[in-house]
Amino acid sequence: MFSKVTYNIIALCIVMVFFSSCAEDTDYIEISSELEDQKLKTTLVALGGTLDYFVLPESDDFSNIPADPNNPLTDAKVLLGKLLFHETGIGMNSKKETHQKTYSCASCHHSGAGFQSGIKQGIGDGGIGFGLHGEARVMAPDFTADIVDVQPIKSPTVLNSAYQKLMLWNGQFGATGSNIGTEANWTSGTPKETNNLGFEGLETQAIAGLTVHRMDINKTFCSDNNYEALFNDAFPEVDLAERYSLITAGLAIAAYERTLLANDTNFQNWLKGDVNAMTSNEKKGALLFFGKAQCFQCHSGPALNSEAFYALGMNDLSGTGVHGTVDEATKKGRGGFTNNPSDNYTFKVPQLYNLADVEFFGHGASFTSIKEVIAYKNNALKEHNDVPLVALANEFSPLGLSEHEIDLLTEFIEKSLLDRNLQRYNPNSLPTGLCFPNADAKSKQDMGCN
What we know:
two-stranded antiparallel ribbon; single chain; Cytochrome Bc1 Complex, Chain D, domain 2; mainly alpha; 4 strands
């Protein structure tokens, strides 16, 4: 039998051991977290030279936002572009008179869907409805597939597009970078002819897109709708005879698009020094992204994108909600533009921020979750029957990720790269007083806009 004193001593020892154990566990957690942060920092510095390599600048930090030398960023130009990007009043050339002034650039690139459309195919002229984040937009009953304004490919985001020299999945817009030497394909009488103006991709696409999507800008519109002073402030150096035009409007829109940066995310805030901005699982996912999963081979820089084109064997648009047919040039991606067989079935590497805002992925919207895309790349088995095996990128090979690792990688992309306040880039109202991003009756009902 133990004496009372002995029992007290034993009890005291048990208590001391318990608290000592707790302290050791706490120290281990803190050390583990510190080591996790240090390992991620070391990995990123090895890849980019510094952590700053991955940091997106503030949206008003014009000196650090990549810009076209022929279209320098100014406050006045960005403000004008912000309004024109959302302005439904410039949708003046609809195929149906009843649909005039009901759509905008933002119909297919709005903040609620990470500056994508929210559906498989963005619909401009001929679309009705919006839903909560663009998911309910459909073709109007008085339109048909041959006249409705849709793309034969999933509308890419304009978020973080300042980090792209060329625009669209096939890179056909832009007179610089890897489009030097493709001049023979800047076909006269097509939107590609806009490359002859000599601008980078964003500017070229914005200028060409205004015509393609049946929009217009002129002196009368500007005078009647409080835009004249805005154009004067943005382009004081441009002759009055040319100041109120599709070209200047496109340059302003491109300037605004360059400021659309997902710079307030868990990953971005961690990069800027907040070690608690990401959870332990997010950090593990980041380590996989920049390590074993080899995502960084194609997704690099501040926007986690690339100017390269790869064939990954993904399907083209098909199925419900798809209007029209996909032509051969579109199916061939970069090759459909360059006419170079070695470019066939290759598509540009997209940026990866705010993918949690959308429901369709891949150039053909053939995936419905981020996890599906990761699993597809992990297995590296093509889904498109027309893409020959010899055309597939060497980087498209099995990764050997476990189900748990796929989950961690998914969590990093979904949560760490999500900017939850892209609405800060929306205007409070438009000079015309019209609703945006759409102004058709169904959209206005959905959005509660009068």
